[in-house]
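Page 42, continued from yesterday. The earlier attempt failed because a stray header line got pasted into the input along with the sequence. Redoing it now with the clean sequence only.
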Amino acid sequence: MIVLLLALPALGALVLGCVPAIPARAARVLGIAVAAATLGVAAVVAGRFDYGAGGRAQDVVDVRWLPAVDVRFHVGVDGISLPLVLLTALLVVLCAATVRDRLMMAVVLLLEVGMLGTFVALDLVLFFVFFEVVLIPMYVLIAVWGGPRRRPAATKFILFTLLGSGLMLVGFLVVYAATGTFDMTVLARAHGHGIAATTQLLAGTLLLVGFGVKSPMWPLHTWLPDAHTEAPTVGSVLLAGVLLKMGTYGFVRIVVPDLPSAAHDLAPALGCLAVAGILWASLACLALARGEHADLKRLIAFSSVGHMGFVLLGIATLTSAGIQGALIGNVAHGVITGLLFFLVGGLKDRFHTSDVTELGGGLLAKLPALGGLLLVASVASLGLPGLAGFWGEMLALLGAYSPGSGLSRPLFVTLTGLAAAGTVLTAVYFLAMLRRVDFGVVTDRWRGERVADAAAVDMVAWTPLVVLAVGIGVWPALVLRVSESAVKGLLG
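This time it went through. Structure tokens are written below.
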């Protein structure tokens, strides 16, 4: 099933990319069908998953690939990767429903191969290969179908991510030199035994920077606002919903179990950088929300830095609660921020701008469906209890208040207080944005103009994300129960 999960979008991308004679309508139907079939396979994998043994890789395929260096095509899913596989497959279906260009559809399906492959890889070299497969399709999405400054944004994206990937590969080679294996399951079972503390610290530092670029960790985040602002809606949704999770997934999947000594030594630095990102992003968003020319896409992009800061803080605690908070935070951010970018894309299609001043107020009065969904997504993103965004932040703060053994409790309690202040600032800037866009009076520019509210295809794409944002918020065990046993295994 895992091979089929990867083969379906790969074949779809190959057909759509290499057969230009396919009519646009047929290409769209084929792309949606392939994405839906991939989601169906992911659902089958989830349906036959043994949730009582979530710490064990299941549906495993393990065959020889490069025997000279013992690199294997080794794939499978466990309680950590399964929620991200399902999230990826769902977001690609929803994005495919909005794509009308044959080549863009091919690029989206190729991007899906890399994203899914990263989450199911159980060999470090295979993980690196899939990690890199993602870069070119995302570069093409931004550079070809992006906004007016798409080329500089795409170039910045590829340069930053290639630098991070290079450091990540060197870190993997350091691990291989010390252990003689790239097998992630073998390394996780060893839990650092046989790797000297200095070697672990060297590899861990390289991976901290490599994964930190993609996370995005402050101050390595500067590529993200430009990429989000210029990317087409589909690119922004997949970038926020999935690509940012690949970095934090790497921390949880590789650094914490395979390099426990390095994880412990680097945890204070990771926690400080995470909280710096939370506060910096919150202040930047507050300035944007209150500024004269505030771009909604840019505001949501900066907010992602803060939300992913909570994910990194949860990982830095090295506690079950903190890492569980990071995992559910990953899923919640993918659902909520994906919905926000869909909504901003809908606004831009209708008003030809995402500038808050040009949009004016009264969106709820003029377009009740779009305005109402923007309200729901925003309060979910600010962490309102009962919605998905609450649990990741709460569990990260809980883990930071009682960090793992050997970590400085005074330091992490201080970080808890600063991060909690970040949650207050997050509420302030989202409410400031809603006051300017959703409420108030419709401006004269748009009062007499007929603008269509959300169409049926929009509601089909957006409703599943609203349902998930509410469902995970009310019943967080949808995610936490899947990953519970796997997290305990990660921490030894």
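Notes: Strands lie at 58-66, 71-77.
Reminder to self: strip header lines before submitting.
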